[in-house]
Specification:
By secondary structure, the chain is mainly alpha-helical. The protein folds into 2 domains: about 5-90, Winged helix-like DNA-binding domain superfamily/Winged helix DNA-binding domain (Arc Repressor Mutant, subunit A, Orthogonal Bundle), CATH 1.10.10.10; about 95-235, Four Helix Bundle (Hemerythrin (Met), subunit A), CATH 1.20.120.530. Helices cover about 75% and strands about 5% of the residues. The protein has a 3-stranded antiparallel β-sheet. α6 packs antiparallel against α7 (about 145-160), α6 (about 120-140) runs antiparallel to α9 and α9 (about 190-205) packs antiparallel against α10 (about 210-230). The chain is globular, with a radius of gyration of 18 Å. About 30% of the residues are buried.
Length: about 240
């Protein structure tokens, strides 16, 4: 398998763990959501694509009601746009909106890093240090596969360790758009070793149980992500 194919498969796994066969409508909705979010974030459903409930139901072998509910959830997250009497579109990727998203993400992620530094368990502290070590290896080897694996682990651990349901739920609304933007542009403009080191520094700062250090490390990471986002303007 070529490296590019391995990266694509890994991103698909990171974006969404495949669910087993579901029984209730809620489970089917979750399955439909995960399948569709994966396709949108990895650009298999391209921005501007017109979606059909009937076609998606046939492709995924899921009824139209769970598909409709999944699309409504994706609309709340900004990944699709539902136009009454006109159809359903995959949302466009817009740098200006991505920068606005980063304004919100910066405040949320800083809050979550600060609170995680105070509220995490001893086991979660160990996990932050392990993620930092993994990110440092990714930086040394310029390994995008390892980076993406640990990036997802860090996001999940941070949401758990912050012990703030509302912040975690709000961050969830931003993650799909952020992942899609990264997936589209990271090969062209990302400094992967630097990005991995900044993630490692953030994880270690949280593990130090120093909320101020955690907040500063988060700001350094978001400064880079904002720079990366603005750099995409030069490759258009």
């Amino acid at each position: 398998m070529r490296k590019g194919e391995a990266v694509t498969e890994l991103i698909a796994d990171v974006v969404s763990e495949r669910a087993p066969a579901a029984e209730g409508t809620s489970s089917l909705t979750d399955r439909a959501y995960k399948e569709l979010e994966e396709r949108i974030v990895t650009l298999r459903l391209e921005p501007g694509s017109v979606l059909s409930e009937a076609t998606l139901a046939k492709q995924l072998n899921i009824g139209r009601t769970p598909i409709r509910e999944a699309l409504q959830r994706l609309a709340r997250e900004g990944l699709v746009v539902i136009l009454p009497r006109r159809g359903i579109l995959v949302s466009e990727i817009n740098v200006k909106r991505q920068l606005m998203l980063l304004e919100v993400r910066r405040e949320l992620e800083r809050l979550m890093a600060r609170t995680a530094a105070v509220r995490m368990s001893d086991d979660e502290q160990r996990q932050f240090n392990e993620i930092a070590e993994g990110m440092e290896r990714a930086a040394q080897e310029n390994d995008d596969i390892t980076f993406m694996r640990y990036d997802q682990e860090l996001n999940t651990l941070l949401s758990k360790a912050a012990r703030n349901l509302y912040a975690s739920n709000a961050m969830t609304l931003l993650q799909g758009l952020s992942r899609r933007f990264w997936y589209l542009h990271y090969k062209q403009v990302a400094d992967l070793p630097l990005c991995a080191r900044l993630h490692a520094q953030m994880a270690r700062a949280i593990a130090s149980r120093d909320p101020e250090a955690a907040a500063k490390a988060t700001d350094r990471l978001l400064d880079y992500i904002e720079k990366f986002t603005r750099a995409t303007l030069d490759v258009r």
